[in-house]
Design brief:
By secondary structure, this protein is α+β, with helices and mostly antiparallel strands. It has a domain of 95 residues: Alpha-Beta Plaits (2-Layer Sandwich), CATH 3.30.70. It contains 4 helices and 6 strands; from the N terminus they run αβββαββααβ. The strands form 2 sheets. It has a 4-stranded antiparallel sheet. β4 and β5 form a beta hairpin. The longest helix is centred in the middle third of the chain and has 19 residues. The radius of gyration is 16 Å and the shape is globular. 16% of the residues are buried.
C-alpha cells in the first residue's frame, strides 16, 4: 500500500525530520523541526454540547486557535466538530513539553475560552493529557 500523492510531500518531509503540520483552515501549515522520537505533550478534549452552543462559541474557538498556535512550544491547537455527531467538539493540542503547557494555561487569552464555556456550558467534557512519542507510520 503506497502513500497517496496528497500526503507524499508531507511524509517525505517527515522522514527528514521536518514536518508540515496541517491546520484547521486558519493560518498556514506549520513547519516543525522536531525529529521523530521526540516526546511531546498531547491534549485531547471532548465536549458534548448542542448546535446552538457551537454556533454561539464558534468565533471564540477560532480566536483561541489563532492565539494559542502563536504561543511558544505549541505545535497544534485545533477545535473540530465530529462528522457523525455534530454536537461534539474535539480539541487537539500538541506542546513541546509540560512547561510550555503550563505557560499556556497562564496566558491572558485563556479567558476567551473560559468565558465562552461559562456562557454556553457543555453537557459533558473530558480532557486527557498524554506524554507521547511520535513514531514512523506503520507499513
Amino acid at each position: 500500500m503506497g502513500i497517496s500523492p496528497e500526503v507524499a510531500p508531507v511524509y517525505e518531509h517527515s522522514r527528514r525530520a521536518v514536518r508540515v503540520d496541517a491546520t484547521s483552515g486558519i493560518g498556514e501549515p506549520r513547519v516543525t523541526n522536531q525529529p521523530r522520537g521526540t516526546t511531546m505533550i498531547v491534549v485531547n478534549g471532548i465536549f458534548e454540547t448542542d448546535a446552538d452552543s457551537i454556533d454561539a462559541i464558534r468565533s471564540a474557538l477560532a480566536e483561541m486557535e489563532v492565539a494559542c498556535k502563536a504561543e511558544n512550544g505549541c505545535h497544534d491547537y485545533t477545535f473540530s466538530v465530529e462528522v457523525n455527531n455534530p454536537n461534539v467538539i474535539r480539541l487537539t493540542e500538541k506542546w513541546d513539553d509540560l512547561d510550555a503547557l503550563r505557560e499556556h494555561f497562564r496566558q491572558p487569552h485563556m479567558s476567551i475560552l473560559r468565558d465562552a464555556m461559562s456562557k454556553h456550558p457543555p453537557k459533558s467534557s473530558q480532557v486527557s493529557f498524554f506524554e507521547a512519542t511520535e513514531i514512523e507510520p506503520p507499513r
